[in-house]
Amino acid sequence: MTFVETHTGRNDLPTRDFSWMVDASAKRFRIHTQAYVGEDVYKAELERIFERTWTYVAHESEIPTPNEYVTSYIGDQPVIAVRDREGVVRVLINRCVHRGAALCREAKGKTRAFICPYHGWSYDTSGKLVGITDRNIAGGYDEDFDAPEGLYRVPKVDIYRGFIFANLDPDAGPLLDHLGRARDIIDLKLNMSPVGEIRLVSKPYSVRYKGNWKFQAENIVDQYHFLFVHSPFSKLQTKYGESTGDFGVHKAGKSHAERRNTRYHGDTYGCSQGHGLAFQPESDPENLKQGHFAEHFARLSEKYDEEMLCRIGGKCAAAIFPNLGMIHHQIRTWRPLGPDLTEVTVYPYELVGLDDELNAGMLRSQERFYGPSGYGMPDDVDIFSQNTEGLRGRAVEWLILERGIGSDVETENGDFRGLPASEACQRGLWRKWASAMKGIEQ
Ligand code: FES
Ligand SMILES: [Fe+2]
User: Fold this and answer.
1) Which helix (H) or strand (E) holds 43?
2) Is residue 201 part of a domain?
3) Residue 147 belongs to what domain range?
4) Shared domain check, 210 and 167
5) Using CA atoms, how far apart are residues 37 and 34, in angstroms rounded to an integer?
6) 20-64, pLDDT tens digit by residue?
7) Does residue 257 share a domain with residue 167?
8) Is 134 near ligand 1, meaning CB less than 6 Å away?
């Protein structure tokens, strides 16, 4: 038995075609209720999407030195992302090969060996089985016992600017092809740091909601909902401005119309890989010369021209298919736990090389909107549960995702560029979903 030959779960992959649940044409884009609530759809998603797509598992700054690890997930499968003794980053299924116990129960740590809590089998940080307790005693194992070599190693692991992705499909194409235009968002976010790096240091914040994982993937790049779901926050912005949030860099606008115009600018993309991207460059370079970040932007201007500086200093967000979000100064992941249960985890990050005071300020800003008592995240989580409640009304079969469809423009690489007020981002997710959810020949 080797490290990678045990992956046979795909043999029972159902062949049913679910792609009809996206009813798309030039002017029409509708999603069937079952795509959000169906048990069979969910099971097929785990196999056809999460076992075949590059998924984000961890960030390198969480495991900077040999023998450091974090536990994570690919879809619903538990994994350990670990830097082994030699410094190689590996992603291992967090399951003892003996009788299946979850091997590592800590969220994060450093160890020379993973020791199974059930019967004590031990593995080094490369996943190699290095010890079987009481192996040779009477009633133990015979001399010719066919011992496994070790934990199941996820066959494909690759890293882009510190973001560790893994893919259970040994035949998967390159990570960079999967990321495509989503790299622009990662680059813009990281290039805000003087040295182009981020570091995850705060403890993450996790929340579960009673709803499908795709609600979160759609929402993180949904400009449309903000002024409605977050209307109490929006009213506070009117009263107090953005001075407590982004240090005065972003102007919220005083009236509803002004705030709407602030949100609806820039470009959105629905990418062929399923990503939704929203770019909102700063429209007035003078704004970058004000606020707490003024000095920082002045230094960055030695490296970047004005257009790029406005892109870096503006806002942008991404839903990187299938499980990674980027918004504000945070990495966000979502983990499917069932058709109507999802866990979201928010990891605020520091910009390496930035003054502590600015990093601390951005953390406070995170807490204001995304924290447990923040103004924003609880609103979103609540609306996801409300969506689930609404979808019980099965007498209505289809949801409408056509906003701005007439203004979508297909680009040379197969992405669709949309207007900022449109639902182009969400259509990108669903186009990819439909192609992944076609029946697969056995
Ligand atoms: S299940 Fe791990 S040692 Fe038995
Ligand atoms: Fe929101």
Assistant:
1) helix 39-45
2) yes
3) 55-171
4) no
5) 5
6) 999 998 899 999 999 999 999 999 999 999 999 999 999 999 999
7) no
8) no
